[in-house]
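U., I forgot to send this yesterday:
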Amino acid sequence: MAIRKPIVPNILNANDHLASTIKGDNPEIEEQHFSNQQITDVNSTDIHFSACRFDSCNLIQCDLKKARFCDVIFHTCDLSNTDLSFSHFNRVEFINCKLTGTHFMESEFLATSFSDIQAKYAVFSSGKFRNVLFNQSQLQEIALDNCRLEKVTFTNCNLSLAELYHTPLKDINLTTCDITHIRLTGTELRGAIVTPAQALGLSRLLGIIIE
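Result:
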């Protein structure tokens, strides 16, 4: 599935003060390049990043609820345990990033791609996804419950032990993914696309006995 790429200028303003920028008085941050910076426990709400790029930046255990990201690239960044709940992502790329335990609860994702990410224990509960790609990513034990998935693609992802309660999987193709011991009630699987071997493993959730 083709995802619209972020519209980011080739030449950006180098910004070496990520923490003070986030905590500053200007909630609109545009055309900035943040590289090789680390911040921890920085708090800010309703901040808006537009046409920005983050390279090898670590935002650890920060509270950035209700943030907005439009045309943003995260490359080789670590956002572990950062709270991005109630945020909005439009034309955003996460490439080779660590999102362990990151909170995206009740966030909205449009034209967003996650490639080669480590997102074990990440929380996407009650999120809305439209035109989103998860590719070659480690998504073990993520919370993807009560979500709305529209035109979402998973390719070669590890979804073992993922929580998918009350998230309809109609038209979602899981054939290239590890879905061992995914957690759901069974009704979510109606219309999902799986391999025969996967269907055999999922039969326990449907109360089917195969002899």
